[in-house]
Specification:
The protein is of the alpha/beta class. The strands form two sheets. The protein has an eight-stranded mixed beta barrel. The chain has a two-stranded antiparallel sheet with strand order 1-11. Strand 3 and strand 4 form a beta hairpin. 52% of the residues are buried.
Amino acid sequence: MEFLWGKSAAAPTRRTVAVVMTAVVTVIALVAGLTNASRVGAFEGDYPTGPDVASWQHVGGAAIDWSQVKYAGNNFAFVKATEGLGYVNPYFIADSKQAAANGLIVGSYHYARPSQSATLQAKEYAAALVAQPQPSLPPVLDLEVDEGLSPSQLTAWTQEFLTELQTLTGRKPIVYTYRYFWQHNMANTTSFTNYPLWLAAYQETVPTDIPGGWNYMTFWQQSDKAKIPGIVGVADFNYFNGSPSQLDDFVAGLDLPLGTLIEGTISPDRVIGTAMELKAFGENNRELVGAILAVAAGVIGIGALVTFARSQGLDLGPANAIADLVQSLLASGNLPIGDLQTMAAEGDFTIGDLMILLQNAQKLATEVERAKAALD
């Protein structure tokens, strides 16, 4: 998915300062001890898989070769349809039709902008779905930003959108989110457990800490850095929590009791280039967050942050990516200090959660700059 949001800065607490200082000591101790991220595969078993794509997967206008995507063993594909008010993905119709023509079950998603009308967004999304090939997966609300709404306001906005969309399409929508956002921006509300959950959790092992009162995920987005034949660059990689026949039943509108969680062991033979840092991404992020806060406080430099990220099991590429994000966000004044302090204080989130948070903040900063440029 596309991540566009981060929180504003807040004054550091005593606990945060302690975490920062602990991280500084750990950084110094581990400067010379670098480790490589474990290399992982996909889960054994007959779980259907598939990418989700947007305009970002059309690098330089390149087309997606959906026959290769299907031949690589995938069963479904989600294609971004709309965002907020007034935006329709220019590749939505072509990608949807070509994916379906090559035997993939097609889904779609709407990227929520809660500062705008929920009802009008649901109507625009439903209108776009008229061109979607059938049969298809249920429509999806991609909820990742609050745009200034409180948890209670955002909960009401979400219910309004889902109710309107179900009325217009006759189908129960899927809710896409990630754990940190749901627990904090939605106050971990349990109001939506009657909707299927699509959870983003970038890690090697199946996430067991499901937010919002859901007992299980219907879809799991395991990576946003998958290399999939037929797609230029990288794409998000997902599992359906059931069998192929259950996926067909789900498409047909049956309310499936899928059980608890995807089960299985790691097997390298089904991987389609899933990011090699997944094992490290599933580790606790508290010390790495502390190191980032230390950079923000001017206690350590960016180079030490890279070294520390490597010591946490990240390959050089992901470690540099984190450092680049932090450096860019500091320069623009958009590093989400408040969220980082919360992560450090609570200490139960993953490096994958951290990456999503930083990507959110960077996307927001980019959107703000584009808006300013348009006004000049």
